[in-house]
Prior knowledge:
Layout: H1 3-12, H2 19-22, H3 25-55, H4 64-85
Amino acid sequence: MNERIENLLHRSGLTAHGCWDKFDEYDKQALAKFAELIVRECANVALEQKKWVEDMIVFNRQDEQWNLARIQQSQRIVDKIKEHFGVEE
Length: 89
């Protein structure tokens, strides 16, 4: 499990006072998968924003570099979310 996700589990109280020890391996894997799914949903929200930027009619018509930079920045947000939480493609 990713260290950041483990930290969030601890901060949520799921690992406090022996709670984590009471979980069997299935429970631990299910919690890890649940966290991964949440991260993927967040990344998908950012990806939808990127698609919106790509499809937008209201581009800066005089500056294609600016348009490309907006699209690249949107993709970077998607990538950083996944990287931050250690979620693979």
